[in-house]
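Re: beginner question about structure tokens

> Can someone show what the tokenized structure looks like for a real chain? I only ever see the sequence side.

Sure, here's an example I had lying around. Input first:
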Amino acid sequence: MTEFYGKLIERIKRTGCVESFRFGLKEKLDFAAGQFIQVIFDEKDRKNGALNKYLTISSSPGKDYMEFTKKLSDSKFSEKLDSLKVGTEVLFKGPMGKCVYDASLPKIGFLVGGIGVTPAISMIEHIVGQKLSTDVMLLYSNWTAADIAFKSELDAWKAENPHIQVVYTVVMDNPKDENISVGMITKDLVLQKVLDYQDRVWYIFGPPTMVTAMKGVCQSLGISEDKLHAETFLGY
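And the corresponding structure tokens:
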């Protein structure tokens, strides 16, 4: 784990309030898909939790840039992010995290909601880019269809790679898209959409309430603890 600077080269609007920030690096960052970094805006006070936060890398390994994606809010950290101009240098620390892609697993699944999709994006982009045979099932929940970040990328990846399957579901919307389900990720939804759920290793990412709920779904399905990899997003 090291500290390094990156220069902002592009900002990409994913939804109305979710944005990706891409940084050019002097050297490619060696990390595993699913890991995260610390963004350090206050270099003098490293314990400043309001301005120094941890974010998952949403780009795949091997790129000549590093990207993270954040739902912008009215927090000091989001305000600082939103003020960044192309060409600005930012200090990072990392990579960190052990909840990562494992190429030895033949089948994996994701139970995620909202911004919790970012580590899944890194892993799926890596699988598609490297033409790997890992069978992926992503169950991805949002409030509305307009809140689905990376939908165009996910649709393109599943069209390119027959091993990639995506189930979109929304809670507060009645989408026109027949490929988007209505409701939360539940035991019944998993039973309906994932016939081989017992054969998969499952990744759960998101805020504490989401992680707890998805662990409960897995427990109700009888999925053993050794088939669960969970990481909680804090400070959002």
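Each token stands for a local structural state, so reading them left to right follows the chain. The chain has five helices and twelve strands.
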